Structures are given as C-alpha cells and as structure tokens.
Amino acid sequence: MTFRRRLYLTLEPTEKGGIPERIFEILLIVIIVLNIVAIVLESIRSLEQEYIELFDNFEKFSVAFFTLEYVCRIYSIVENPKYQNPFYGRMRYASTTMALVDLLAFLPFYLTFLPLDLRFIRIFRLMALFRMFKITRYMQAMIIFKSVIRERREQLILSFIFIIFILIIISFFMYLAERDAQPDKFGSIPEAMWWGMATLTTVGYGDAVPVTTLGKVLGGLFAISGVAFLALPAGILSSGFFELLHNPEAKKHTCPHCGKDFHE
Amino acid sequence: MTFRRRLYLTLEPTEKGGIPERIFEILLIVIIVLNIVAIVLESIRSLEQEYIELFDNFEKFSVAFFTLEYVCRIYSIVENPKYQNPFYGRMRYASTTMALVDLLAFLPFYLTFLPLDLRFIRIFRLMALFRMFKITRYMQAMIIFKSVIRERREQLILSFIFIIFILIIISFFMYLAERDAQPDKFGSIPEAMWWGMATLTTVGYGDAVPVTTLGKVLGGLFAISGVAFLALPAGILSSGFFELLHNPEAKKHTCPHCGKDFHE
Amino acid sequence: MTFRRRLYLTLEPTEKGGIPERIFEILLIVIIVLNIVAIVLESIRSLEQEYIELFDNFEKFSVAFFTLEYVCRIYSIVENPKYQNPFYGRMRYASTTMALVDLLAFLPFYLTFLPLDLRFIRIFRLMALFRMFKITRYMQAMIIFKSVIRERREQLILSFIFIIFILIIISFFMYLAERDAQPDKFGSIPEAMWWGMATLTTVGYGDAVPVTTLGKVLGGLFAISGVAFLALPAGILSSGFFELLHNPEAKKHTCPHCGKDFHE
Amino acid sequence: MTFRRRLYLTLEPTEKGGIPERIFEILLIVIIVLNIVAIVLESIRSLEQEYIELFDNFEKFSVAFFTLEYVCRIYSIVENPKYQNPFYGRMRYASTTMALVDLLAFLPFYLTFLPLDLRFIRIFRLMALFRMFKITRYMQAMIIFKSVIRERREQLILSFIFIIFILIIISFFMYLAERDAQPDKFGSIPEAMWWGMATLTTVGYGDAVPVTTLGKVLGGLFAISGVAFLALPAGILSSGFFELLHNPEAKKHTCPHCGKDFHE
Description:
The structure is a homotetramer. In chain A, helix 1 crosses helix 4 (52-76) and helix 2 packs antiparallel against helix 4. The first copy, chain A, is mainly α. Chain A contains 14 helices and no strands.
C-alpha cells in the first residue's frame, strides 16, 4: 500500500477503521473541542490577559495542524474513485461544502496580517465545530435528521410564516392597547414584537409586560393560543421522525418474498 | 385567446403557469410584504415623521394597485366555468372569503375621507397578509394544516375548555392563598388569572409571583400539572399530522387476505 | 308518553334529541357559564359592592334552578332501565359521581344559614363547570381523553415520580451552591425547590436565579436536561392519542370479513 | 422452608408475593420516603435546631435498618440460583449497581467518625430514592423508559450536541451585539451563554435580557428557531414510545400473503 493510500484511509474515517484511524479521529475531535473552548475562554477578559501567550501558541498550533491536515487531504483525495483526476478531481473536492468548512477553519488566521478586525474573523474558527458531524458514529443520526427536515421543509417554512404572521398581528393589537400606558415598551409595533416573541415562544423574560386590563386580557388569549401553534412544528417533526424510523416498510408496500403489493 | 382570458390566467395562479404568471405572482407577493413592512415601520414615530411622504405615496400606490387588481379579477372571473354568469357569477365570486379579503385590503383607504380614526382602519391592510396563503406552492401544506385542525376540532376545543377550566380553578385557590399578602396582584380572581395564564403556558413573566409558603406549594403543583395539560394539544396535533401524512393506507382498511373493505 | 318520560328525555341529552331537548341543554350551559362568570366577578371588590344585590339574586335563582333540576332528575330517572326500582334505583343514581356533582353545585348554599365561612363554600359552585362535560357533542372526545390517561396511567405516574425525584436532586445541589450567596432564596432545600420547579417546567419567573458561577453552570445543565424530561409526558400522551384514534384495527388483528388473524 | 429461604423471598419482591412480602415492601418504601423528607426538612435551619434530636434518632434508626437489610440480603442471596456460590456469588451480588446503591445509602454514616464534612456526605442518602425504582409494580414502565432511551441514545446525544453547538453560536453573536451596552451581563461568551441557555430552553428568567436593537432582533430570531430545536428531542422520544408500545407487529415484519419474515 502506497503512503498516499495509507494517508487517505487515515483521514477518511470508515466504520471498520483500524487503530491508527481511531487515534487520528480522536486527536482531531480533541483539537476541535479545545479550539471551541479556547474561543469561549478568550472572551473572558481576565483570562485572556493572563494566558495571552498560551492562547496565541495554541492558535498557532491549531492553524498549523488544520493547514497540514487540509494539504494532506487535498494530496490524498485522488485515491477516492470519485475524485481520481489529479487536477479536476482535487478542484471538485476542494469546492465541496465540507472542504470549504475545513478551509475556513484556518484560512482567516493568515488574513490577520491584513488590517482587518481580528475578533470578527475568529468566528470562522467556530466552523471547526461543524466538522465534528463528520464523525462516523453520528453519521446515521445526521442523515435521519437531514431527511426529516428536508421532507418536512415546506410545512416547517409554512409554520415559520404562520408564527411571523401571528407575531405581527398580536403585536399590532398590543401596540394599540399598551402604547399610551407604556410608550417606552409598546411605543411601536417592532417594540411590541419583542414582547410578542417572548410570549409566543413562552420564554417570557418579563422585561415587557402588559399593565392595562385590555392588554392583559389580549396578552392572555394570545399566550394560550400560542401554545397550540408551538405544537405545530413539534407535531410535524415528531411525525416525520416516526415515519422515517419505524415505517420503512410502509413505503415499500411490497413483500420482498412474493413480490406482491399489499393493496392488490 | 381573448384579452379577458389572458387576464384571467395571469391572475389565477396554477401549477403550470408560464413566465408572465410567475412575474405577476412575485410582484404581488413583493407588494404585500412591503405593505406589512410599511405598517410595522410607520408605527415607529421617528421614522413616520421623517418619511411621511414616502409612506403616503407608497400607500396610495398600493391602494391603486390593489383596486386595479380587484377590478381586473371581477372583470375576468367569468372565464372561470364556476362563475360564468356575467352578473350572478361575479356577485357570487365577490362574496367568497378570498374576494372579501382582497376588498378589505384597499376599501378602508377610501373611507378616510370620512371623519373616522385612520389608524384603526389601517389594521385592515393586514388582511393583505392573508392573501399570501393563496400562493400555489404552499397550497398543499395549507390543505394538510386545515385538515388536521378540522379533523381534531372537537378535541382541540375540549382541550381549550379544559385549560380555561383549570385556569379558573387554580386562580381561585391562588386568590385565596395570596390575596392578603399581595392584594395588588392576587386581589381578585381575574388578577390571579394573569398569574395562572403565565404559569400554565410556562411563559412566566415574573411580574406576579406567589410569596407565601402556601402560595408557592400550590403554585409549584399547578405548574408541574400544567406541563402535562400542555402536552394534550401537542399530542392531538402530532397524532393528527401523523395519520394524514403517513397512514393513507389506514383509511383504506382493506384486508390483505380477502381484499374486502372493512367498512362495507 | 307520560310526563315523567318526557321529563326524562329532556333532561338526559342524546345525540338525536329534538328541539325542546336542545333548548334545555343550551339553557343549562348558559346558567352554568353565568355562574362561573359570577364567581369570578364577585371576587373583584368594587364590582361586588356595587352589584351586591344582582349577585345575590342571581345566586338565589341559580340555586333554585339547580335544586329544581336535581329533583326532576331524581323523579324521572326511574324511566332509565338501569335505575328502574323506585327507591334503590334512585339511591344508586344519587350516588353516581355526576349526581353528586349536581348536588354539590347547590347544596352548600343551604349551609350558609349555619355559621360557616361562606366564601370557602362557594368553591363548590365551581362544580357546576364539571357538568359541562356532559354535553353530548363533547362526550366522545372526553371518552378518548379518559382512555388515553387511563391506559397510560402507570407511565404518567412514573414520569411524575421522576420529575419530583429530579426536582429534589437538583434543588439539593443548588442549595449547596447558592445558600451562602443568597440565603434568602436558596437557604433551604424547599426554598431551592421553588427555583427548581420554575426551571424544570420552563416557567422561569426570575424571582429566584443563581448568581454564583457554580450555580449558573449547574442551573444551565439542569435546565437543558429538564427539557428532555418534559418531553416524556408529551411523548407518552402523544403516542397514546395516536394508538386510540388511528389504530383501532391494530387491536383487532382480525379481518372482519374472513375472520382470519393477520398473524396466522 | 429454611429461614434463609424465607428471608430471601421476603426481601426480593415478586409479582405474586404474599402478605409478609407486601408488608415489608410498604415498610421499606415508607422508610425511604421518610429519609428523603428528613433530608429536605433538615435543610431548614429553624426546623433542624428545634427537632435536632428527632432527626438524629431517625437517622440512626434508618442506618440501622438499612444496615440490617443489607446484611440480610447478602446472607440470603445464595438462595438465588444466579448467586449460589457462598463466597463468589455474594461478591458478584455485592458489586451489582443496586447492591452498591443500597450500600451507599448507609455506609457514609459510619464515615462521620472520621474528620469529614458531614453535610456533603449526606447526599448519599438520596441514593435511597433510587431504591424506589426496584418496586415491582412500576418495573414494566421502567423497562419501557429504559428501552426508549437506549434505542434513541445516539439521536438524543446528537440533539444534545446540536443544542450545545447552537448555544455557543448564538451566545457568540449576542456577546458581540451586547458586550458594550451590558458588560456585566454579556461581557464574555460564558456570561452570554447564561442568557442563551435561558432562551433556548424557554425558561427566560429575565435577569439577562438584550437591550440594543441588534441584540433584540438577533435574540428574537434565536428564540423562535430554538422552539424548533426543542421539538427535536420531544419528537425523538415521542416516536420512540410509539414504536415500542403500539407497533409490536412492526417488528415482526411478516408478509400477510406468504407468511415469511422480511428479514430472512
């Protein structure tokens, strides 16, 4: 087995990977998780100032690691029959979503030599988190999630439009009911929508609350109705999961032994 | 093809509509969405004062557009076999829900010459939002939604009555427990119902909260029980979706042995 | 048809009731709803004082109506083959849950001549609300609700025990984490349970919130886990509804035409 | 029947247990529940000081009871064919989860003679609560719960990772939007995560709320999207329950025409 082939098999995890593949997979997850932790901790000013060197060194190490990994992937990908052409195959691979995510995880670092706001660019390092979903074990669950969402796309979008529609309507009425009593919180429809959002999602921060009797009556009715609408996306996703996971036979409608359709 | 027939086909979107139909559909959606945005933005006092002319001109344009569209629809509807009588057909079409919604989206504007509160009438322009549901693409999802709600109407109404019933009961007890400690927030059953509504829907604004030990014990028990009742409408809708989307066979009820229908 | 038989048919609503039965049913619902409204409005001090005579007269009228109705029911129930014995049949009917509810709706009024707290006794008038569930239209939905809850009783009780168990555990940890920082809100496990209840049910009043870092980390983990546990009763009820409503055949497993079991 | 055999049958509840077994089971439950109540009440300082002797005596009694019960179990377990070897059988039984839970419920008491913090050790007495799950009656519901969670483990873990992932992303954006306006509440990503957790779970304490327009717009969008993600674990568990409880046939996969199993 050539070095390139061995490299390819190590980088592309499969169900029946051996020990070196498992070690690389775990190493990659550890570095990705540490990157996320670093981004979160760096935002704490006191920690950032004390451990500035540690954070800097870890970032340099991570970028070097991700760069090397990316180069190795581009180099070895031609072992994959789908991308076997040395130039066009590599180009096609480099333009897949996953390869672009890989690239964005380290490329912004090299842009910091340019006069740009470093902090905003750092968000791209969060891209690394997406890579975790490539982990073999969770591939199947991911596929199920994607299928459910894709199959129910239309109904989910319609639910979302419904919610926005209801949000505007109820905010309009609360604006009419409360604008005189609380001009700072219900003084315009967008301001009333902050209350409406907190109520429909049942978050209920409590920073904007109706105080007039009319406002409370309307607010109460809207909140109770909101519960039913919240049940819509839950019902859609729930039935989506059910079909995909438990009724694969329901789609076939044919017996695999005798070939007859059940509804003949 | 006559001009009237061409007009009719443009205004009534069908699955296999050509390019002019698509352009008109998109134009209509854009104008409707801009109307909603205008209503929302106009409520912000600073924006309203600065762009008063822009808002006024856009409203005049919208009303002109909706009026023209309505006249064209009434004129061309006789091409539809269901409404082919020149007078009675048009009357019947004009009295359908969708045509009335179309009418209410612009008619109130002409009433502003009368000494009425302009701002309240503006609510009718929100009617335009309903028109979005006529958009062909989402028709099927809408039909499913309607069917689920219609089929489960009785159970949803019963859930609603249950919730109102429980709301009154728990508010009565909280009123007894808290009226002495907090006469401003639990001084009457309707006031206690504001707390009850916020708790049963799990919104929990926090503006009215029991402070006595008895109130907290009762409030806690009510909140935990409320979670189970909230699951009722969710369960009803969820199972409704499931049946409609995945078990069309369950409705046929044919025996796979003898092929007869169960309900004969 | 005797007067007693006519009385019986009017009082016991059936699916195919005529116009007098419908009128009586509607009248009964109106009086019950007005009673609930009266109890709620009477709790508002200003209304109670102003309309004290109206409330008193309405209460007297209601009690007279309910008493008369109860007497008529007891008198005519012997028309029902189940209760045809003039004495024992009436006794057995009077001891059914529904007849006791009917009795409790007016009996406490006669007890007000005794030196007891009138206000507390008034709660029994809420019993009248239960009677609404006898309305024919909602009978079937009620039966479904009851069946779902009965069939899933064990799992619902177990969910409830789980929730109480988790509530005690998380409150214990929050008590350890926050008792020094907020002795007034997390100074004992029962006090911490008020926070725990508000968090697990996602009500989140915000009157008791962890302030220490440890408390916030624990509180966040508990809240996220709580979401999954909240899904338990919803899932149980949802699947219960589904089975009962859509899979009645799943229970029979036999074809009604050929009598064969599907699993033979 | 030997004394050891009688002891074994009393301690290990079975479906068809006689009266002594039932009495012992109820006694055990009462003592466990009283232990939980004692732990909760002891945390209330005023009660602890007043009834210090009662609490102490009850703890001594409980520990004595649990110790005796544990010794009896270890002594009599050899009657169980699975653990019949006098030494190795007892060792294997002592290392089962349930036996360790039993041990932890009283062992920490004996450690209080050592110079350790008594209060922290007391947490182990909560272990007693776990023992309640051994109660025979609820065994079947427990098995269903466990099966659903085990079968959906991967999807539930993926949901959890998704939620953590989304929590970090939205907290990052809220930190960027609000850190200048509210450095005490959104001054770092971990601090913003407290808001994010309260929003995604719809708890919404209201102690940290965005105040800038950008923060409110982002916060509103995040909250609405969060509702859909909350529906994921609910949908997973709901469909899990359904399959296990109502579709035992779906697992058999036999063709009604030829009777063969689909997975042969």
